[in-house]
Amino acid sequence: MVSVTIYVEGGGDSKELHIRCREGFRKLLERCGFTGRMPKLVAGGGREQTFKYFCTAHGASASNSIVCLLVDSEDPMTDIERTWEHLKDRDDWDRPDGATDEQVLMMTACMETWIVADRAALRAHYGSNLNENQLPAVVNLETRGRQGIQDALERATSQCSNNYQKGKRSFQVMAVLTRATLEQHLPSFVRDMRILEATL
Predict the structure, then answer these.
(1) 3-state per-residue secondary structure call for 124-190
(2) Residues 155 and 130 placed together within one structural domain of the fold
(3) In this structure, are strands 40-45 and 3-9 parallel, antiparallel, or unpaired?
(4) I want to staple 200 with a disulfide (CB 3.0 to 4.6 A). Which of 17, 37, 66, 120 is the partner?
(5) 15: exposed, middle or buried (C-beta count within 10 Å: 0-12, 13-18, 19+)?
(6) Coil, helix or strand for 95?
(7) For residues 195 and 89, what is the distance between their CA atoms, to the nearest angstrom?
(8) Residue 40's beta-bridge partner residues?
(9) In which domain, by residue range, is 126 found?
(10) CA-to-CA distance for 119 and 145, rounded, in angstroms?
(11) Around Cβ 106, how many Cβ atoms within 10 Å?
(12) Are residues 16 and 100 in the same domain?
């Protein structure tokens, strides 16, 4: 039996947010059909720290274990299959010895891109005060920069009582997204699901 651990960028330095982060991604993976074969999820906090955790775990991993890294791409990707090349160019991260591109799962360009892609989930979560006109078109979402996506989501929910905020509220929205919708709009998400289906 192979054990799979995914180190997830998110949760900051707060123990409570680490719990919320793991819970949000766990619920999303369950909604994506992975109930009964779930990986272990580790909230790594900040981006650099999450990478360090991954490298340490990868170096110590046994033959019957797989370690993955789930991070924002931060910027649009030239080739979604060449994850380590992107991370080297953008973050100057060196690929650990023996690590493959398939061990890196990307949120392109960020977690908010996934959230913005699922308008039905946004409407259900935020209600009638959601201003969808502030959201970018779902076409070619992964070509948009991280900051623009985040700013648009904050503007669209600014009149909602549970307006979008990084942290606790962001993970609440993550938990209600729908796989089919995300796969319709996000090639990197399709890739992530393909890898997880083959791994879990």
Answers:
(1) HHHHHHCCHHHCCCCCCHHHCCHHHHHHHHHHHCCCCCCCCCCCHHHHHHHCCCCHHHHHHHCHHHH
(2) yes
(3) parallel
(4) 37
(5) exposed
(6) coil
(7) 23
(8) 5
(9) 112-169
(10) 19
(11) 23
(12) yes
Q: Which residues pair with 70 in a beta bridge?
A: 8, 105
Residue 164 near residue 116 (C-beta atoms within 8 A): no
In terms of domains, do 76 and 132 share one?
no
**Which of these, 154, 186, 198, lies nearest to 72 by C-alpha position?**
186
pTM: 0.96
Q: Which amino acid is at 6?
A: I
Instruction: Give 71-115 pLDDT, tens digit per residue.
Output: 999 999 999 999 999 999 999 999 999 999 999 999 999 999 999
**178 assigned to some structural domain:** no
Residue 168 has pLDDT above 90, yes or no: no
pLDDT tens-digit series, residues 104-140: 999 999 999 999 999 999 999 999 999 999 999 999 9
85 and 145 assigned to the same domain: no
Q: Which two tokens stand for residue 177?
A: 């997204």
